[in-house]
Amino acid sequence: MAIAEATTLDERKKLADKLFSRKRNVSFGIPAVILVYFVYIFFAFDIIGLAERARMDNAITLVSDSYSHKTHVTRDNRSGQFVVAIEGDKKGTYADGVTPDWVTIEDGDASVDLEDGYRVDFQNDTAVFTIPGYGQISATPGRRGVEIDLPDGDVPDWISLSNTRLAVTTPNGRFSMTRARTEVFRYFFGWELFFFTLDSPFHGKRPLEVAALAFSGEPVVEGKSNLAAMASDFWNNAMWRHGEVAWAIFETILMAFLGTVGAAIIALPLAFLSASNFAPTQAGRFGLRRLFDFLRGVDGLIWTIILARAFGPGPLTGSLAILLTDTGSFGKMFSEALENVDNKQIEGIRSTGAKPLQRYRFGVIPQVTPVLISQILYYLESNTRSATIIGAIVGGGIGLMLTQAIITQKDWEEVSYYIVLIILMVMAMDTISGWLRRKLIGRATH
Which domain covers residue 207, as residue numbers? Predict the structure, then answer.
């Protein structure tokens, strides 16, 4: 418009040059600002220092722990007692006199075969770790720490040693010794004892054997059918706690459902009072709008902390936190949907002599129902994820179990198990909400 309004050719050229110059500055200025911001982040977050502090060996161990399990062979250096346990858990401890075929314990001495020539031999108080291509590492606990004898030459990166501790990491297993105890870890692929623990009569059997026993007429456990005994051993698995995990998932979904549906029930009548075309007074509308801003302006995690302080931890506290936050969100969205309704339908209902409540019921609600249901289902799906985090704070649901597993930093395959279940739970909720949306609203037609 400015170029068209210019009277002379020179003025038009000057205006065109200004416009091109402005666009050029914007085109180069925005990328330059972004680049400066990234440079600031690089130094402000100390990316170089972070890279230097990164421990790739710990990262590799963490990743391997997520999809595999390890068997601990532990010797108490004070008593000389040996314990063989899966993941070092008491619930996964082998009975006295029973060991895996790669562990031999006899007369206070032991031998641990890690395959491919890797081997740990316990002789009296001394442990000798034989490593192909490197030699033998001899370690003995003493009063002042650990006495270590290594092959000549530089110490490799995969050996960590000090006066009080020796740690060796190899592809076939790990070894560590302190004054108090000596441990050998051997990794195996998969989540061991996931179905049956060591004390179950079905442990160690192949899948086909288990399938055959399930439909066998000869009971393995007295008083129970084999199928019932298998289901009981799986459901009451002491290490993986499948029954408790199933209840925790149900608790998480229930937390999200109660919070979302409760918020929708409260927000709908309030939305009528805050919509510009239905509000009885402007002052009341203004007050409700600010209330919605306040409720959704405070994050759900903050509401969780406040409510946990007031009512104590529990799933109900998490539900209330979701309810408060979503009441603010639903109130705003529902009121905006009400403000966009078609008044012609309302006038048509009015012409029949319908009362105000009947006009709302038959002239307004049918118009906004698809929008309301779509928003409620979306928030229900989203709150299923949020309930996991909220549960970790207020002490309920699968979020608490995930947090406990992370804090212990012992069984990362258990962390992986919970994460997989959370992903499956979210996928299931997405599928169910999509099915409900199609049933209640119908498929969009193009």
Answer: 193-230
